[in-house]
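Before drawing any conclusions, I needed to go through one protein's amino acid sequence and its backbone structure tokens, quoted below without any editing.
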Amino acid sequence: MAWIALFVAGLFEIVWAFAMKQSAGFTRLWPSVLTIAAMIASFALLAWSMRTLPLGTAYTIWTGIGAVGAFTLGILVLGESANPLRIVAALMIVGGLVLMKLSSPA
């Protein structure tokens, strides 16, 4: 269950990062509210998963899901650059996440 909670926490991290971008520096109400709500959910699930998973593993996986997810959303929804170096960098993050999961004792 801790891994599922951690994965969902990572998805909420993607949501709050995207909503924060849409909030225009917290000047738009509903994206700002969504940002805060998703942050609370993300942190709560991360904290819950850390009761079982090692700190380094949980935090690395959480930030990696958020980073790669926000990167992908930026390309697909916001029209951000998808140049080869950025894609290689994202793939390296994914590779690191896989290695972190495989090396975790929990």
